[in-house]
Specification:
CATH architecture of chain A: Orthogonal Bundle
Largest sheet of chain B: none
Oligomer: heterodimer
Helix content of chain A: over 70%
Helix content of chain B: over 70%
Structural class of chain A: mainly alpha
Strand content of chain A: under 5%
Number of domains of chain B: 2
CATH superfamily of the largest domain in chain B: NADH-ubiquinone/plastoquinone oxidoreductase chain 6, subunit NuoJ
Number of helices of chain B: 6
Radius of gyration of chain B: 22 Å
Distance between the termini of chain B: 68 Å
CATH class of the largest domain in chain B: Mainly Alpha
Chain lengths: ~100, ~170
């Protein structure tokens, strides 16, 4: 039988996989996708606890998390395009100079 | 029935995610991530959140992932292989240690007597959630709409093609 712990465990494993992707991948777009994955695992936690506590507030907060994810994806991808114009690459190992 | 669905969806989601973070080709990674998001949306539906499941499909799998795919194809990164992926020689011990730590944590968690409590059935109708969003949480929804506006302005500022001011400086 499924308890709230099962859902939280799946969310924890998803978050860990996202963190692993952020740490190991070198393609900046895939790193962004892993960040989306981590935000989604947080969404799963919110929904599971909302269902567990019979309370709708968790589902409302998922909307805000999704808005943050959309804004982050838009700004991050614009940064990727600006970086690609300068360096012809989006390898995160080359993004090491903060100065112009 | 619900528990069988949970295990199937969890398996699909974790497998798709694992495949996503290990693919070299970013387009394949996007496709696997979309599969994972669909499984996650079904899991939200299972938890009694149909409106959030619809958002998950529309916003994540529909809008954000298509944006990623568009950028990948626009920059022409699809056929390009990265020179080296995750360096297993360097990351292997860390993965082993942290996964065994997580296995111990999960074992401890599922020994808890509350882990056998079945999660209650809960269903939040889309109408109730919409009324809460535009009633009690109206101010917060306005704030996140401003956040989207600022993000689009910022993306426009970052992504526009610069005029020829480099020659003057």
């Amino acid at each position: 039988m499924i308890s709230v712990y099962h859902y939280m465990s799946v969310a924890a494993i998803l978050f860990a996989l996202g963190t692993f992707g952020v740490l190991t991948r070198r393609n900046a777009i895939v790193v962004f996708m892993c960040i989306e994955l981590m935000l989604n695992s947080v969404n799963l936690t919110f929904i599971a606890l909302s269902s567990h506590l019979q309370n709708m507030d968790g589902q409302v907060f998922v909307l805000f998390v999704m808005t943050v994810a959309a804004a982050e994806a838009a700004v991050g991808l614009a940064l990727m395009i600006a970086f690609y114009r300068n360096r012809e690459s989006i390898d995160v190992d080359q993004i090491n100079m903060l100065k112009w | 029935m619900a528990s069988l669905l949970f295990y199937i969806l969890g398996f699909i989601m974790l497998t798709a995610t694992l495949l996503c973070i290990t693919r070299r080709n970013p387009v394949h990674a996007v496709i696997y991530l979309v599969v994972g998001f669909f499984a996650l949306a079904l899991m939200f539906y299972l938890l009694g959140a149909p409106l959030v499941a619809a958002w998950e499909v529309i916003v994540y799998a529909g809008a954000i992932m298509v944006l990623f795919l568009f950028i990948i194809m626009m920059l022409g990164l699809a056929p390009q292989e990265l020179p080296e992926g995750p360096n297993w020689h360097r990351w292997g011990p860390l993965v082993l240690l942290s996964s065994s730590l997580m296995a111990c944590t999960l074992l401890l968690i599922f020994q808890d007597p509350a882990a056998t409590e079945i999660i209650g059935t809960y269903y939040l109708a889309p109408q109730e959630l919409g009324e809460a969003l535009f009633g009690r949480y109206a101010l917060a929804v306005e704030v996140v709409s401003f956040q989207l506006l600022f993000a689009s302005i910022g993306a426009y500022m970052l992504g526009r093609s610069l005029p020829k001011e480099d020659d003057e400086s």
